[in-house]
Amino acid sequence: MLRYDDLNDISDGKLYTEDDMVCAGTNGCNGCSKCCESDMGNTIVLTPYDMYELTVATGKSFDELLTGLIIELSMMDGIVLPNLKMSEGCAFLESGRCEVHAHRPGICRLFPLGRIYNVETDQTVKKDRASAAFRYFLQVNECPVKNKTEVKVRDWLGIEDLEKNTSFINKWHRFTDFEKRKVNTIREMTDNEVKRLENISEKDLEVYAGILGETDIYEIKGYKDYKEEKIASEKQTSEEKIKKVLKTVIAYFYLDKYDIERDFYQQFDIRLKKCLAAIR
Fold first, then answer.
1. Which H or E run includes 124?
2. How far apart are CA 81 and CA 106, in angstroms?
3. What confidence tier does 3 reach under pLDDT thresholds 50, 70, 90?
4. What is the mean predicted confidence (pLDDT) over 5-34?
5. Residue 248 burial by CB count (10 A; 0-12/13-18/19+): exposed, middle or buried?
6. What is the pTM assigned to this prediction?
7. Cross-strand pairs, 71
8. Which of 51, 115, 114 is CA-nearest to residue 81?
9. 140 to each of 94, 111, 119, 254, how far by Cα in Å?
């Protein structure tokens, strides 16, 4: 996702479709692997498709890649997602070359391109790519390779059946937005309830305890202790609900190993329906 307020600060100011020509060709990087050697933090976020591709490339499950310190889990915009562990460069970099190049993650495929979502498009683009919710942009200051050549975006990406992949990216983006809203809703509801309890009168709290069938507990603990206990309970319940959502998503889309002999997109759609049913 775009991490900057002004696209013009980092790009050539243009937005591209997959069939546009863009000056991104690095001629095989000419022996350069600077981006793969750098500490990229947690920016190489892995989608379910990336996980499928890494399983194809390595034969390893999500758990095995996680315990092997090749990937890690990070909190991003309130939700948990996996990313390549890049604190000391990429673990797949060997003698300056990528060991999983044919199955590299989407963000690696994009570079030096980026992706920006929810773009207003003209009628031609809407007609040609009605399902797309994003466009591509060229990062002009990130890649050190000089004299880049023009290449068609879809050729640069090199993804088989790009239309299916574009549809998947849109679905995944919408789903993670839904997950963020779900988590935020839980937090907001908890915050509202905590504020209500913090300002509740003794009389109203006693009535509330009666509704919960906890009149005896209220009489034993008293107003202050009972209120503090309910506030702590609300916060704990909220965190448990959030953890359940986050764990469910990781389980459905990452922990459950993909069948590399079967089509990824069909597997994803099945998991998407099941996960939505589980967290709604």
1. helix 123-128
2. 14
3. very low
4. 86
5. middle
6. 0.88
7. 84
8. 51
9. 26, 11, 20, 33
